[in-house]
# Entry
Amino acid sequence: MSDIKLAPIGVAQALKDQVYSMLKDAITEMDIYSTPEPPKLDERRLAEELGVSRTPVREALSRLEQEGLVKNVPRRGTYVVRKTKEEILEVVCVWAALESMAARLATQNASEAEISKLRKMFASFDDKEEARAHIDEYSDTNIEFHKTIMALSKCALIQTMASNLFLHMRSIRVQAVKEHNRSDQSVIDHMRIIEALEQRDADKAERLVREHAMSLSKHIEEYAKYLS
# Structure
């Protein structure tokens, strides 16, 4: 079974809801496009790692399948769903719309302290060379940056809609930032976005975030040979 990070379940909420939440969070953190085949999930091993019976795991996987995150293949098992290149390009397009609006709202709703946290995220990546030298760490920071912009919108619906796309956006960003020195432009783009947010320039922040997201779309079109 593919690596998936889990911990034993507590008792604070309904067991089936805990199992569902933990599995969804864990799947979201996986790099699902980094291997030739879709990651496979083993029901028995998941139950053992969570410290529960297989029933709530089965229920959670069924719920995740209804949401389109996993797929049960008869006689083969359950796999994390991977999208085609065409589908990923649609995901990026929708993400661009959501994140650019989130950036606009952030200029109105986020405090100075909250926006300053974005700059602090990149304090250790002063230039393109530093980002390239610590690409895995930079990749994690890059993901957190985009999640934070969504959160700074203070719009619950945007965050909910974005969460359903995040599994694929995270994995694609992890792959893309390591390819063809894309991290170089990423450093520049992020700094410009932060400056626009600090200046409370809604039009500029919205435009820069949208352009940054759509540049990912162009990268995928040209370089994502691992997508069918």
